[in-house]
Design brief:
There is one protein chain. The longest helix has 43 residues, at 313-355. Among the domains are: 8-96, Beta Barrel (OB fold (Dihydrolipoamide Acetyltransferase, E2P)); 102-257, 3-Layer(aba) Sandwich (Rossmann fold). The strands form three sheets. The protein has a six-stranded mixed beta sheet with strand order 10-9-8-11-13-12, sandwiched between helices. The chain has 356 residues and is α/β, with parallel strands linked by helices. The chain is built from ten helices and 13 strands. Helix 4 (134-147) packs across helix 7 (270-276). Helix content is 33%, strand content 21%.
């Protein structure tokens, strides 16, 4: 198989030995790698070798695999494609290479949505106005930890700060790097540039109206996306991103803009929740009973910490809510697996009866 490690466009996009080795395992000389830069309803926009941009569609076989539970390729994925004979035809996607990182959520209704994959860092934007919400950020940070990418909290609109929101973030998320920016001072964005060097990809997520588009404009160095002043009615700006897409930055790396999310449901992000609430898990180890439910059991270290004010009621309630969502998802997944197992056995028995 051909090596693409020296391809300058792929170097910028983060192609590495990890992806090259998985691509080599396909052992198909007609395939070339590409990275998905954006997605429309009917096709993907991809970057191919030699910085060629193309339009891609899934093969019939890959669509069948998706019907059987295989996750659909998403923005940020590296894929293996077949180049068509006619330059007017779309390239055909035959495989998705294994992801290094994956940011995903549960959509309303329970379906899984991959927000972006294979990003090195995740900028979680929130604003220093009425949108500021630590409980919501607990979800974002938990999902970021679980994805495998490095989470960074970006507090926008710090010129509107009234409650020292920057310090609140640092106190609430002691293991996460926090930056404060505002559009009136370009220098506040400078610390972010080191995450956007050649070969690095940053994902940008956050609720609608927190200033993601303004942040993009300052990173890019020009007004790529038209924004208007914050509305007094709801403390939000007036530009709304409608799709996920890659943007090449002046520093050689890429940033992936994403639409604002009203709901951020948890899936199986057990690792992320455990990372975000490690202090609570450490307290739980000190409980007298291993199966303590942290309600009215004697010797409960968590109850004691709540009573003494060492663990805030707000943080405990938010942890409990996220944990309940994880438990619900686990039970639902278990039931689905059991149903699929029963269905498979029924098909096997039907086939045996036909043969006999």
């Amino acid at each position: 198989m051909m090596s693409f490690l020296e391809d300058s466009g792929f170097q910028s996009l983060g192609w590495s030995l990890h992806f090259q080795s998985h691509f080599d395992q396909l052992k198909n000389p007609i395939l070339v790698p590409a990275r998905i830069l954006s997605e429309d309803r009917s096709h993907y926009s991809v970057q191919l070798p030699n910085e060629i941009l193309g339009r891609a569609m899934l093969s019939g076989k890959l669509r069948q695999q998706m019907d059987q539970g295989e996750e659909k390729p998403a923005v940020g994925d590296w894929i293996a494609c077949e180049i068509p004979q006619s330059k007017h035809d779309a390239v055909i996607v035959h495989a998705r290479l294994p992801r290094k990182t994956c940011v995903k959520r549960a959509k309303p209704g329970g379906q899984t949505q991959v927000i972006v994959s294979n990003v090195d860092s995740l900028f979680i934007a929130t604003s220093a106005n009425d949108e500021f919400n630590l409980n919501r950020l607990d979800r974002y940070v938990s999902i970021a930890f679980d994805s495998g990418s490095e989470p960074l909290l970006i507090l926008t609109k710090t010129d509107l700060s009234k409650k020292n929101e920057l310090q609140q973030l640092k106190d609430h998320f002691p293991t996460v790097v926090v930056y404060g920016v505002n559009q009136k001072d370009q220098l506040t964005y400078t610390p972010l540039f080191k995450y956007l060097q050649k070969g690095l990809t940053v994902g940008l997520i956050g609720s609608s109206g927190v200033g993601k588009s303004t942040l993009i404009n300052h990173v890019m160095g020009y007004e790529r996306q038209k924004t208007d002043p914050v509305r007094d009615a709801d403390a939000k700006g007036r530009h709304t991103t409608t799709k996920r897409e890659f943007l090449i930055t002046p520093f050689g790396g890429w940033i992936v803009d994403t639409p604002g999310m009203r709901e951020l449901g948890m899936l199986d992000q057990q690792i992320g929740v455990e990372s975000q609430f490690a202090d609570i898990l450490e307290l739980a180890k000190k409980c007298r009973f291993n199966d303590c439910e942290h309600q009215s059991e004697p010797g409960c270290a968590i109850t004691k910490a709540r009573q003494k004010g060492e663990l805030s009621e707000e943080k405990w309630q938010n942890y409990s809510k996220l944990k309940s969502e994880l438990d619900f998802h686990e039970r639902k997944s278990h039931k689905a697996a059991e149903s699929e197992k029963k269905r498979s056995w029924k098909e096997i028995h039907k086939d045996l009866k036909k043969r006999n």
